[in-house]
Structure formats: C-alpha cells, structure tokens
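Progress report, Aim 2. The chain analyzed during this reporting quarter is listed below.
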Amino acid sequence: MLETYFSARKTLARLRTGPSGPHIDGFAEALEQEGYSSASAVRYLRAAAHFGHFLQRRRRTLADADAGALEAFRSHLSRCRCPLSNGGAANHHIVFGAKRFHRHLCRIGVCHAQAEHAGPNAEPALIGSFREWFRRHRGATAPTLKNYCRGATDLLNGLGEDVNQWAPARIRTFVLDRAKQSGTSTTQHLITATRAFLRFLRFHGLCRINLDQAVPSLAHWRLASLPSCLTAAEVERVIATCDGPSVRCLRDRAILLLLVRLGLRASDIARLRLTDLEWEQGTLRVVGKGRYEVRLPLPQDAGDALLEYLVARPNLGATDHVFLRQIAPFKPFVSNHCVSGVVKRALKKASVHSAAKGAHLLRHTAATEMLRQGVPLDRIGLVLRHRSLDMTAYYAKVDIGLLKLVAQPWPEVRS
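Predicted structure tokens for the chain:
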C-alpha cells in the first residue's frame, strides 16, 4: 500500500522496517479510504514513522502510546535532531499525523484508547447529570450544552460543591465579579448558564427555592439596532461565487440558497439529515430549538442545488447528515461555525461588506425580503419559527412603506 505514495526503494524499506513498520501499510490504506490527499498522506506516514522512532529511543513501544507520549512528541519536535525523521520540523502536520496514527493503533487494538474524561480533570458527576438532563428534556445541542456546562462548572468551583449552602448574596457576588473580568457576550453566556443550572438544581430539590432570581441581568437594549441584511443584487453576487462543478461549490451554493430562501439557522443546516428531505411533498423538515419541528416548502432553486450536491458528494454510509466537510476525513459539520464559515468565504469572494458576516445575516435577509414582498409579520414569524411576535416585529423597522403610513408630519413653524 505504501507504493501508492512512495516510489524510492530506500524510503519504502526504511518505513517498513522501523518501529511503526508492521502497521504502516494498514495506516496508509486507512488514509486512502478516508479520502486524504496524497500530499497529506505522505506527511502523516512520515510522522507515523518518526513517532515510532521517538518511542523506541525512549525505550517504549507502540503499545505504550498515550496522550502523554503524544505531548512529549510535540515538545520533542522543536529540538528534533533524529537522523530518521526526514528533517521533520515542528508543525501541525506532524503532530496531527502522529495523533491520527495513534487513533489507528487504538482502532486495531495495538494500544488502548483513553477514556474521554479520565484523569484529574474529570467532569463532576453533578455536571454530567445536568448535561444529560438538559439534553433530554430541553433538546439542547452539543455546542449549547458545552457552554452551559462550562458556566455551571465555573459556578461549582467558585461557590463550592455543597450546593445546599449556596445563598443569593454569594451567587450575585460571583456573577458580578466574573462580569468585571469578561466582555458582554461572555457575561451573558455565564448568566444564562448559571440560571439554567440553578433551575436544574431546584427541580431536583438540591438547593433553595428561586435562587435563579438572584442572578442579576445584564443591562442591554433588546432589538435596539436595525437588522443587518443584503440587497437583492448583493445576494446574487454572493450566490454567484459558488458557480462551478466542484463538490465544494455545489455544497456551498445549496447552503446559501437554503439560508437566504428559508431563513434557516446555521444549526438547522448543520443538523439536516437525509430523512428530513421530503422530495415527494416538496418540503423540508426542520427541527429547531427545543425540538420545535416544522415543515417548510422547498424552493425550486434551493431544491435543484441540493439535489446536484447530493449526487456529487462523497458517499459515506456511516452518516445520514446532508452536508459534509470537503477536507478529509469527510465528516459532518462539527458545529454551527462551519456553516457561518461558508457564508463568510462567499461574502469575501463577492466583495460584499457587512457588519454581520455569519449565517444569521442571510436569515435577516430572508425575513427582510419577505417583508418587502408584502408578507405579513405573523407569516414571517411562522417561517422563521419565532415563538413570540415581538421577535418578528424587529423587522418592522425596515418596512419603509409601513413606516411612511404612521409617520407624523413635521410641525410648521409659525413666525
């Protein structure tokens, strides 16, 4: 299998006779199956051989490889003078190649995979229960749970593990002290996570009643600004940046059209499954916040773009996610930021400048365009899946026609 990437006999012999030699061909086959480019595979195979020699020089075997060995290897790279390392300098390709080789060794049983939360930094049992409870009963996504558990852990470390002794004054002081050290966005996340954790504790009878009301609110003016949106011409320029036959272009075009035609959130795109595409009915099933499920009509251009991408995308039987990364290994998007990254790249290529640059910009654009077409606010709220009409009323600020009807004439000045 190594002959796919190397032709020199000396190189092939050296890779196969080193400490990593018995597993190097299998590693090469795994890299090819996962779709890595030849250039990346060559780097990772060299890194695997280097990692084997590194362990051997320290009188260790591949079976001893663990997180500590990988960290020691990372530190070694900055001063590496190994004669068989191919002059490997300290860079992320070598480090990632060694990690990827370690995962391959764990998968084939050469060494044991470490537990995700093992060690001194293990997650407290109470935080684990909070995570599972919030996921099951509120339908929170992994990024949301990560933020909430981070805030809950900070609170637990700051006030102590005996939650029954927590008092309103201590909670308020804790939040105010953290607010002085953090920005507005970080503070708001902490406040939300703290309230959620306190409600969880009260639900299970672990703390006093109404402790969540002791958490102070952050002063802000809700919906005070105008919604950021693009003009119709700018939307066409952004979508035109994805014209092309490549799989990446087809994927990005489908994502942009779904965002701007249906006003989907980035999380809706990242979690979209093949079973959510109802081709016969011409609808798209979307499961939003709190497992709120709706069916939206699939526009013709968005449906066509989606179908073109599905025909061309890599066929991975292990996942039913619609949108995949275009860099090996071809896995589903890991977070909402991947979707916003698609929008940011398209805006940059189209030379469109806006204060907002993520996926939510196209959601605002979709709502504003519906308003321009005369769609009532309550209908827009249904498409956007707003739970309150007050949220949809945010877009009334850009309805120039309606504002003209309610504007009062300027009073005349009498001399």
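The chain has a mean pLDDT of 84. The first helix runs from residue 9 to 17. These observations will guide the mutagenesis work planned for the next reporting period.
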